[in-house]
C-alpha cells in the first residue's frame, strides 16, 4: 500500500468527532476520504472539519455500506454505537478494508465468534482501539513486568471508575446509546479499558488465557436518584427502572492460576480512576496513589504507606516504556493524554506495511466477551461461567 492511508470514519458522535478532530486530521500521511453517521447533520459537521483541514470535502453518507464500496478506501475507523461495532467490522473485513474499532462490550458470544470467523475467512486484520494499552503508566508497568522487577505476577485489578450520570441521563437529548444499555442490561458493560493492559501483562492469548469468571452487581439506585434531582421526579426517565447495577464486580481466573478483578462503577459520585493494580511476588504497582512497592526496598514503610504515594515518578528514568520516551521527545499529541494518538498511529502503521495489528481480532473477542458473560453470571446469582478460547488452542504457542 502507498504511504498515505485513505480512511473512512464511521460513527461521528462525541467519540468519533474527537478522534477525527484531535487525532486523525492532525496525522501525516492519513487522508479522510469518507465520513458516515446515521444522523446526516453529524456527517456534514464532520465533513466541514475535514474540508477545513484537508482543503477538500470527503464523501458523506448515512449508509456505511456506501463507504465500504469505495475502492480507494483502505481502512475503516468505527466509532459508532456499541451494538453495531461487530456488524460494521465484519462488513469491513469482507470488503477488504483494515478495521480499527472503538471499544465496548459484546452483546452475545455469537458476535465474538462471528468476528473471529470473519478474520479467519478474509485474513483482513481487525484492531480494537483500546487506547489504555498505550497509557504511560500501563506501558511502564508492562516494561517492569517484562524485566522481572515485580516477580511472578499473581493478581491484577482494574476498573472503569467514571461518573457518567450526566452523560447517561442525557442520552435522549444527545442521541447517545449508553442510556438504553443502562435501562435494559445489567453487566460489566465496558470492560476493555482495564482488561486490555492487564491482558498484555498476563500474556492473554499469547501463552495464557482467561478460563472462567464470576460476576455480581449491586442494586441500581445512583442513576435514578440523579435523574430525579436533575430532571424532576415526574419526568418520564425518572419513572423508568434501570437494570444496570451501580457497582459490578467481576473476578476472572486464568489458565496459569492468576486472578483478575475488574469493576464497573459509573453511576455513583466519584473521581475518575482505572484502578490499575499489579501484584507480583517481588512487588506491586497501584494507580490509586501512583505508587510502586518493591520487596527489599520499601519493607520499612509497611506502616508509613503515605510516604510512598506518588513515588512512581522516581522510576520513570529507569522504566518508562521506549514508546513513551519517544512520544515525549517528539511532543505528546492527541486526546486522552496522548493515548489516542499512539493507538491510531500503530493502526495506520500496520495498514501502510500490510502487517497484523498489535491488538488483533482474538484480543477483541476475548476482551469484549466479558460483558455478555458477566450478564449471564449476574443473572444466575454469581454463577461461574466459562470463557471461550477464541484462538482454538493457538494461545499456547502464539
UniProtKB/TrEMBL annotation:
Glycosyl hydrolase 109 C-terminal domain sequence ranges: 139-306
Keyword Membrane: no
Superkingdom of origin: Bacteria
Cofactor: NAD(+)
Keywords from the UniProt entry: Glycosidase, Hydrolase, NAD
Domain Gfo/Idh/MocA-like oxidoreductase N-terminal residue range list: 5-127
Cross-referenced Gene3D superfamilies: Dihydrodipicolinate Reductase, domain 2, NAD(P)-binding Rossmann-like Domain
Protein family per UniProt: Belongs to the Gfo/Idh/MocA family. Glycosyl hydrolase 109 subfamily.
UniProt-recorded name of the protein: Gfo/Idh/MocA family protein
Organism per entry: Paenibacillus mendelii
